[in-house]
Specification:
alpha/beta; Aspartate Aminotransferase, domain 1; Aspartate Aminotransferase, domain 2; 2 domains; seven-stranded mixed beta sheet; 13 helices; 13 strands; 39% helix
Length: 405
């Protein structure tokens, strides 16, 4: 006997989850399992492991204090370190530990936020294509409703008129933004962000700014936070809620650490009170505090990360060019969208899923169909390419077999 609430969580296994499990059960390895599944569907960075293991091995041992309870919303030491980190590496100034909450990953932070600010049926508008995990994080338990705005083109240009119209027509209370954007891999410019804040202010909606890829920008663009001092003249800081975590820039997805930051005291207190149910272990906080407080090491890591992401993206796109597959001109993140419409019988959701199944069953590669991101044009797939060079080469070799399909 289980509750009706719990039944919602596992009525059926989504195809993306099935694909992930297949890859996890028989993973590709360049030396020991060259016939295994190659997973380019899950947004994880595998390019920093050596540097992270080396760094973590040098962190001082825990003390007696670390063995006991601390503030559920994060230790004072960690929140203070994050305030300093956010100022240096995210460009967010004039914050203190009271503005911050720590939770066990961004999904948990989003659920806490959903419980805190939404009633069932309240709408949150986001720009499509979107990170498909938002559906689960916002809708599954606390019943907010994701609405889509098809207001961005493949080069990352936003149509202000469409975005504003969609906010009005949906009656959304919040505007949810990925900055940089997942899955397009686009970093918003200063003028983009100013325009988005202006539109939100005109429509009296809050902004949720998910900036988890802030230090994974390898193109000509520069990351600018929605909470940057650049936008103080708009007088809208209290209506902007910032999210960050360690899963992407730091490639520490297994640590499950997310940060919430806001100048809105009421929302912050609500989020902090609910972290009681989503606390991060004091041992993990001890490690994370030592990592993010070492600004010199962080700077070196991010410089290396962006350099190797640029190289890897170049290798990917060179390979796609040789195959004849088009792609988005991404400049950030660890993913891009590729155009596989030439390999579909027709431009429909069913044909896209048939191609997805062929890729996973016959070629043993997992990439994500655009329909799961709210992409209105069928045939585009997200590719998460932050993998070792040999894995990337094998992926491209298998993908080239589409010509024989």
């Amino acid at each position: 006997m289980i509750s009706k609430r719990a039944e919602i969580l596992f009525k059926e296994t989504p195809p993306l989850v099935e694909a992930h499990f297949k890859c996890a059960a028989d993973p590709y390895h360049n030396e020991t399992n060259r016939d295994g599944y190659i997973n380019f569907g899950t947004a994880e960075n595998f390019l920093l492991e050596e540097k992270l293991v080396e760094k973590i091995s040098t962190i001082p041992n825990i003390t007696g204090k670390t063995l006991h309870y601390d503030f559920p919303w994060g230790s004072e030491a960690l929140r203070t370190s994050y305030a300093s980190f956010a100022e240096k590496f995210l460009g967010i100034e004039n914050i203190n530990s009271d503005n911050i909450a720590v939770g066990c990953g961004l999904s948990a932070i989003i659920e806490i936020l959903s419980f805190s600010v939404f009633d069932e049926g309240d709408k949150v508008l986001t720009i499509a294509p979107l990170y498909n995990g938002f559906y689960h994080d916002f809708e599954t338990r606390f019943k907010a409703k994701i609405e889509l705005s098809h207001s961005i083109d493949r080069k990352g240009v936003i149509n202000r008129e469409i975005l504003s119209k969609d906010l009005k027509n949906t009656g959304a209370k919040f505007l949810l933004i990925n900055n940089p954007h997942n899955p397009i891999g686009h970093c918003y410019s200063k003028s983009d962000i100013r325009m988005i804040i202006e539109v939100a202010k005109e429509n009296s909606v809050f902004i949720i700014a998910d900036e988890v890829y802030a230090n994974s920008v390898f193109g000509d663009s520069e990351f600018i936070s929605f909470l940057s001092e650049e936008f103080n003249d708009l007088d809208y800081k209290e209506s902007i809620l910032h999210l960050y975590g360690l899963a992407k820039d730091f490639a520490l997805s297994g640590f499950k650490v997310g940060f919430f930051l806001s100048h809105n005291e009421k929302v912050t207190k609500a989020v902090q009170s609910l972290t009681y149910f989503h606390t991060v272990s004091t041992h993990t906080q001890h490690i994370v505090n030592n990592i993010i407080s070492d600004h010199k090491w962080c700077e070196e890591l991010f410089n290396y990360n962006n350099e190797i992401l640029k190289e890897t993206f170049s290798e990917l796109t060179n390979g796609l060019d040789s195959i004849g597959i088009d792609y988005y001109p991404s400049n950030s993140g660890i993913f891009t969208m590729i155009d596989l419409t030439p390999y579909m019988k027709e431009k429909t959701a069913q044909a896209e899923m048939e191609l997805f199944n062929f890729l996973i069953d016959e070629l043993k590669i997992s990439i994500t169909p655009g329909q799961f991101f709210g992409e209105k044009n069928y045939g585009f797939f997200r590719v998460c390419y932050a993998k070792p060079n040999e894995t990337l080469k094998s992926f491209l070799q298998r993908l080239s077999k589409l010509k024989e399909k």
